[in-house]
Specification:
Radius of gyration of chain A: 22 Å
Shape of chain B: globular
Largest sheet of chain A: 6 strands, mixed
Oligomer: heterodimer
Distance between the termini of chain A: 57 Å
Strand content of chain A: 5-15%
Order of helices and strands of chain A: HHEHEHEHHHEEEEHHEHHHEHEEHHHEHH
Strand order of the largest sheet of chain B: 1-2
Distance between the termini of chain B: 32 Å
Helix content of chain B: over 70%
Number of helices of chain A: 18
Number of strands of chain B: 2
Number of strands of chain A: 12
Largest sheet of chain B: 2 strands, antiparallel
Structural class of chain A: alpha/beta
Amino acid sequence: MSYTVDRRGLLRTAGAGAAALGLGGALASCGSDESETVTLTWWDYFTLDNFQPGMNRLIRDVEAGVPNVRIQRRTFPFAELDRQITLGAISGERPDIAIVDNVAMNTLGGSDLLADLTGRVEAWGQADQYYKGPWDSCRIGEKILGIPNNSNCLALYYNTRMLESAGVEPPTTWDELASAAERLTSGDRFGLALSAIKSEEGVFQFLPFLWQAGGDLDTFATDGATALSFLHDLIAKGSLSESCVGWTQQDVNTRFMNQRAALQINGPWQIPTLKQADFDWGVVALPRDQEAATCLGGENWVLMAQSENLDKAWEVLEYTQRPSVLVPYLVSFGNLPAREDLADRGAWASDPALRLFLSQLPLARPRQYGRGYADASQAISEAEQAVLTGSASPSAAARTAATKIDKALSGR
Amino acid sequence: MTFLALFLAYPLFYNLRTSVHDVRLSQLLGGSWQFNGLDNYRAVLDDPAFWHSVRLSVVFTLGSLVFQFSIGFALALLFARPFPLGGLLRSLLLVAWLLPPVVSGTLFRWLLDAESGAYNALLEAVGLGSLSHDWLTDPSTSLAGVVFANIWVGVPFNMLLLLVGLHTIDPQLYEAAAIDGAGPWQRFRRITLPLMRPVSVTVLLLGLIYTFKVFDTVFVMTGGGPVDSTRVLSLYVYEVFFRFFRFGQGAAAGLLLLVVPLLAGVFYVRRLRREETTGGAT
């Protein structure tokens, strides 16, 4: 036990885990049977300080619970992880286990980089415990290439006092959203804030509008135009800032925290920050149009096909799915479970904001469009940016994007 | 020689090899690269987005060079004559050049922000509030915004080199000219400008080589957006590589990106050699 404490101290001082964990592994191998201990490399992008205690605890749990395993963890910046995994295909340096953004399954899924877990998952028999969206995000064609790590989705945050003083109820439909946003706009305060930045983040926030309009990527020319003109009207009326084409979701939350936006579209990962706000706020489901819809975010665990320790790595994944391991991990991250059977277990069972997000998970859709998704995503964000900056009309932009999307998804 | 072979020739060769193969994410493993001749180059040259980014790169580079150079020259002239605190000010200006582009890019992203940015606040403070603008999120001004930041980054470098150049001019020339009755403007035109020509060409060439491939400043400030208004050539190459994972095409585009700096480099080296043989007089 004293060794664990030592290592924790080391971890704390070292910050980035890799070196310290390597040392920890060396220390450990002195004590236990050296020949049987397997060291697995583990890559993820959870670099923020507030994630480290939870991650260290998870790894400690794994090392204590799975026989003869040591985890050597390495972290990368968010945008760097996919690239490193990809480059690993050339350089040969790749992890055994990685936690990747679920949207990365589109690109990584078709590449033979990820291990096929289908047989193992069938033998394990717990696939039906997961929400459909998160589980589908691990399924590429007929194969299961990962298991969900955590899930999140988007919802609408509101500033309680602002809504009360404007006499507005939290909106539930597009019409209500438009009129609420208009009435909540005053001075340098915008009614609504959302991210339309030219990256996957912006697309993540846009897709719900497309789906709510009743469409999908294959009907972008028409339903895309509907969604785009709804957002365009918000800007035309001044309810939404044109600057949103440059805002990340973090920027959006900052606006909301500074009370310069009465409503914001954002995810549950903002809750810890929002709890420090000195005003009351609430969350409701995203307003619906033809359909209710929200976009699935979160991460999946994947194993690398070239790993020499697939059996051990799978054993680790299976172990992490025990409620006694998974629940504390998710709680410490402020994340939601991808498993339905945990719905009444963690912080999300009592916290009203988290519960709202959890209630949206069953209808959260994964961005599961296959290999051409990166091109499609780029076409979507360019169309949105063109419309919101006034350089193209919604219908023209949607038509241009639809052509590109069709080409991308038909797998040229 | 070994150094060159290892760190220059091999990567270049590898890149060249990649650029004539069909290499996408799915082909990376197994090593079954399909030779496809010039297909990647054709795909890049057929892509309107490529030509758009070439145009943006040209505007970005020319805009940056003109202002970097003229402001740098003006500052060099200012700092060439001693005045109190001149040395301190000069070193302060150098800080801009020492800052990593990621830092200066982030800084300018904040400064140019529509709502909380200092520049708009400044405009309002001096009664020009009507000019305040959302510089980086309006496609018609975003390129100007990133050029502005890049000028700021480049001015100290230009100033420093030009200042060294000014110090090499023999002060007796100015004295003689003054005795002959030449005014300040004439002295500048007849002595400073011609004698500064070799240095100026060097500064501009180095600036061209450096500016044409600038990546970080733009990436941090706008990520190429809004729409594609700041997607300069280096960002285009990055996207092909790491957003779409089309490595063959990326390698081809990367080599095309090299053309301009390479030409400038060859020109620069030939100039250097000529100067050496003719003893520096041009």
